[in-house]
Amino acid sequence: MNTPPLLSAVLPSIASATSTALSQEQTDAAVTDDPFLWLEEMEGPGALAWARGENEKTLGVLQSDPRYRRFYEQALSILQAKDRIADVPFEGGGLEQFWRDENQVRGVWRRTTRESDRSQHPKWETILDVDALAAAENRNWVFSRSQLPSA
Predict the structure, then answer these.
(1) What are phi and psi of 91, to 5 degrees?
(2) Quick one: which of 16, 46, 80, 134 has the most CB atoms within 10 Å?
(3) Can you give the pLDDT at residue 53?
(4) What residue spans of the chain are helical by DSSP H?
(5) Is the dihedral of CA 119, 123, 129, 132 positive or negative?
(6) Rounded distance, CA 89 to CA 123, Å?
(7) 85 Cβ partners below 8 Å, 6+ apart?
(8) What DSSP state is assigned to residue 151?
(9) Is 36 left (phi over 0), alpha (psi -120 to 50) or beta?
(10) Cα–Cα dist 70/56, whole Å
(11) Contacts of 134 (CB under 8 A, 6+ apart)
(12) Nearest CA to 117 among 90, 92, 98, 99?
């Protein structure tokens, strides 16, 4: 059976449109049938309450371990040490790092020169203060990573 040329050209388009429409209907149905869709709103009251509840359960299990207090104190002292070694990668014309401590809870992206880094008290220039930005914009900003443009 010979199919007319016009029909041969139109049939794939109809099939594609039908397939796309069915696919979209299945996607829409899957989204509306998702019982955990409310967790997508990360700052929503329901999601935050659920996360707090899960954290409490987990913390209870961790704290019931007799080693918990010792491990917690060791980890805290490492994180809060004033003399910890900074990981300072060489970027462009200087050294850059992301630093967090008890004063910079969200952190600060900063840079210094090689010469300054070799000194007893390096002088740092702030590139981005995430804590200040979060306070100024009343948002919960988190630093993920930096990527400088390639030359």
Answers:
(1) -130, 125
(2) 134
(3) 95
(4) 5-32, 45-63, 68-80, 114-118, 130-137
(5) positive
(6) 16
(7) none
(8) -
(9) alpha
(10) 20
(11) 106, 140, 141
(12) 90
147 near 96, Cβ under 8 Å? no
Q: 49 and 39 in contact (C-beta within 8 Å)? A: no
Q: CA 32, CA 126: separation in Å to the nearest integer?
A: 45
Cα(30)–Cα(24) distance, rounded to whole angstroms?
10
Pairwise CA distance, residues 9 & 36, whole Å? 43
Query: What residues contact residue 50 under an 8 Å CB cut-off, 6+ apart?
Result: 39
